[in-house]
Amino acid sequence: MAIPYPRFVGSEQPAMEAARMGTPPSAQSTPPVNLTQEELKKIAAYKAVEYVKSGMVIGLGTGSTAKHAVDRIGELLRLGELRDIVGIPTSKKTHEQAVSLGIPLSDLDSHPVLHLAIDGADEVDPRLNLVKGRGGSLLREKMIEGACEKFIVIVDDSKLVKFLGGSGLAVPVEIVPFCWKNTALRLREMFRDSGCVAKLRTCGEEAEPFVTDNGNYIIDLYFEKDIGDLQAASDAILRIPCVAEHGMFLDMATTVIVAGKKGVEVIHKK
């Protein structure tokens, strides 16, 4: 459902304005204009946090959009509007952020089932399938978000695509470092008909391999065409022995919150 600014269904205060100001303000009679992508991310994140209730165990996502949600949860805890929250971070970076905000943390061993998780996504298709992991945390994200009763995804409208890989940006695959060139070759050949290019993710001036929190490498796949049956593609990738996980999150999101220039759209899984 589309929700025009400045009113938001399910919120007593405008999520957009709270996101812009950092604290819940009074409603404005006219909506802001020329919102930046960062402001849109913040709006979606603040809207998602409205689903968080005291006493919940929640998955804390990783990335530029999820960061705003973690900040907001920390703020509400500090104000006393949320209590007895336990967070399960999806990366070392999010762990550090949550600790700095005073969010109590635990792990999947202590809490094998979570009430909900909030995270961003790099792509969202019409069936609410996702591409995630361009920040490098896809394995831990999938472990934690796959253990949630509800998985709320927060994006700005630039992340909406007709098919996964449709943005022309990477679909990541986390692999063990051993013989990574062979794994990259197998992935490229697997999707040859889709015009696949497979590249090792690197970082720094020396172009050293990017290393995940799990000590693995990432092969980024770029597609010229739709890869077709996503579940078949997922199964085929995971059959390669050196693959730890891929960044296609299929049939996992229960709600997607999209912030755009004209408002916030809340899309629930059918």
UniProtKB/TrEMBL annotation:
One of its GO terms (molecular function) is ribose-5-phosphate isomerase activity. InterPro entries: NagB/RpiA_transferase-like, Ribose-5P_isomerase, Ribose5P_isomerase_typA_subgr, Ribose5P_isomerase_type_A. GO terms for biological process: pentose-phosphate shunt, non-oxidative branch. It is an enzyme of class 5 (isomerase). It comes from the Eukaryota. It catalyses: aldehydo-D-ribose 5-phosphate = D-ribulose 5-phosphate. Pathway: Carbohydrate degradation; pentose phosphate pathway; D-ribose 5-phosphate from D-ribulose 5-phosphate (non-oxidative stage): step 1/1. Keywords: Isomerase. Its EC number is 5.3.1.6. Signal peptide: none annotated. Pfam families: Rib_5-P_isom_A. Belongs to the ribose 5-phosphate isomerase family. This is ribose-5-phosphate isomerase. The lineage of its organism: Eukaryota, Viridiplantae, Streptophyta, Embryophyta, Tracheophyta.
